[in-house]
Amino acid sequence: MRSVSAIFFYLLIISNRALAQAENPILKLLPHGTILYGNIPYANDTSKRHLLDIYLPPAGKNIFPVVVWIHGGGWRKGDKFSAMDNMDDSAREMIEKGYAIVSINYRYSSSDKFPAQIQDCNRALSFIEEFGSKYRLDKNNIALIGFSAGGHLAALLGLSNNNDVNTFYKEGKIEQFRIKLIIDYYGISDIVTLKGPGIADPNSGVQLLLGAKAFKEPEKSTEASPVTYIDGNDPPFFIVHGDKDQAVDSSQSVELANKLNQSRVINELMILPNAPHGGNSFDSPAVRSKLFKYLKIYLR
User: If you average pLDDT over residues 217-224, what whole number do you get?
Assistant: First the structure.
């Protein structure tokens, strides 16, 4: 009976893996033989917003440095596949160069206000901390990469990691993770100084995130701003922003870089001429060259 049960369990794992591969639109963009562990619950519940995908290089090391991929969408849409399609050259090169990618979902602001989103990001890192070895993930070598709302969350996650912000963790249980690098594509860094036409819109991403206009919730705006947590012990940053971004003004990334410089945190800001909010220009050879320079230096 034990052998029959073991065979059944093995077939069930194979079946679930095959189903995840069939449903995954990103796998075909990655190198042949890329290993996918799809739709893994990271928060001990059945919510689709608490799923992650793990992509492993097809061969090489027994354990891989990890790039945690955080999607954008104004904190109210998008999923763990978002940005991987128009950043497919970067994602493919990560796998080719021996990095694992862990792409995560998180709760939407339309149903759960801040700090639910950053709590979910920390829960995903907690999953890597606890179960990473099972999937050949090196919990001691983690980089965060995020786009738009995901860039905000990547910066907030990395900068608050060495601050004891108990509201950013499920049930207030603080954990610290070995985050070696933060890669922020056109994310908001300071909600207090944010400007643009969407600020007065009651349906804007920031207002839905906070549950109110930013100026009416100054304490929450400050709490949700990555720049609040900058200190000299923070990991290095690579920041990319377009100078024609009409969704998040590039001054947000300039402010982030300036405040990192004030605390002597290693960083580089790359402003792309004529680039909008997202798109293929962020996957260009020039940007990828810088991206992989930082990954090579800080993720070993």
Answer: 95
pLDDT of residue 17: 52
Residue with tokens 């992989």: 292
For residues 80 and 69, give the distance between their C-alpha atoms in angstroms, rounded to a whole number.
8
pLDDT value at residue 21: 63
Domains and CATH numbers, the chain: 2-298 (3.40.50.1820)
13 has a pLDDT exceeding 60: no
Residue 172 is predicted with a pLDDT of 87
Question: What pTM, to 2 d.p., does this model score?
Answer: 0.92
Sheet strands side by side (includes 179-185): 35-41, 51-56, 100-104, 64-70, 137-147, 179-185, 237-242, 267-272
pLDDT band of residue 198 (cuts 50, 70, 90) is: low
